[in-house]
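Quick illustration, no need to memorize.
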Amino acid sequence: MTMLRSEETKLLLEQDKRVLSPSEVNLTATVLDQACRTLLLIAPTSGCGTTSSALSMARQLAQSAKGKLLLVDASPSATGLSSRLGMAADPGLFELLHSEHPEQQFGRCIQRHPDLPFDLLPLGHPSPASGRFTAEDLQRLLGCLAARYRFVVIDAEAVYSGTSGLTLAAMADGVVLVVRAEETRWEVAQAAVQRLRQANAHLLGSVFNARKFYMPKWLYKLL
């Protein structure tokens, strides 16, 4: 296991300041209730900043709520959470899904980074020899994780990148859609919302990522 050094982790967390603070705070307040334990972040397409938003949301929730928090990488992206935090080679989500007793594997798969206020579950590696996992396996694992943590934040595969994101969205207590300013077309975002609703996802709101300010921020406050 080769995790990032402290200074590298801080740079990763701070490098995308374009995620609006009001979005974080408002959504955090929305999910601060006992009924919401699993929170999934998903984008219409890849490249919207879902991983940065998930890291930011997890940090905000860890500071705002009591109890432990787990950040899960469920996106098979070469630039996803596991790769960015130096955990691409480590066991994780797939190993738990393929285990008959996932609770016994938590110590091997769930990690704690010394510079982050929450636990991490890497993506792991699918094993053809272990067979395919079912929606029931996924639901059972999420239940086990939710019983162990106050919040489980999931960085999911984009809606139009595969089917796993929609499957997870249907099981999560709350879903947040991540869109990227000036890149995500409103028609695509609207279609993604429709697909999420068709999957019976509980949409809580959205994160408007990478917004550009064409005048000083202080001037916006006066408008």
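DSSP finds ten helices and seven strands in the chain.
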